[in-house]
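QA checklist item 7 of 12: single-chain prediction sanity check.
[x] sequence parsed
[x] length recorded as 188
[x] structure emitted
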Amino acid sequence: MKSFLSLLFITASIIVFFMLVKPDYQALQDLRTDVATANANLETAARLTKSRDELYARYNSITKADLDNLKILLPDSVDNIRLIIQINSLATKNNLSLLRNVDYQTEQSATANQDPQAVQKTYGEFTLSFQTSGQYKNFLAFISDLEQNLRLVDVMKVDFSPAEQGVQQSAGTSLSYKVTLKTYWLKQ
């Protein structure tokens, strides 16, 4: 009878363990895992908040003049009209004729046929071509001004040819220039 009672208590305790204690124990383990995950997420959020605050502090330490220069260097939109006006003023400053035969191509139309990965870039490209005419020394000064300009511009191609008779401004004007350049802008 003692062994039967011992066997009965052992069986009852096993049944109680599996019916009552084990589900609660498993739920407790799941909660511990959830708490650990939540704590890890909180630590990550705290690190990101600290990093964000440091970046805000660095951004706020930049002077307004430097921010304006950065916006000129790499604008957040194409702003093709302002670019054409700026290049035209550089040309007239260097005694070249006004820009003519101005043509441009944005990245969307250029890359639709060429590079499918270009759409994933964080910056856009804007290709501009135009013609002007004048003396060679004036053209070199114009290219130098383009180089020193704040707006980031890559001269891709320059074609030289004799100037047309109607375009010449003086007897010293002898060349016509077709310039293709590329500039960049940040995508939003």
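[x] summary fact logged: Residues 1-61 form one domain.
[ ] second reviewer sign-off
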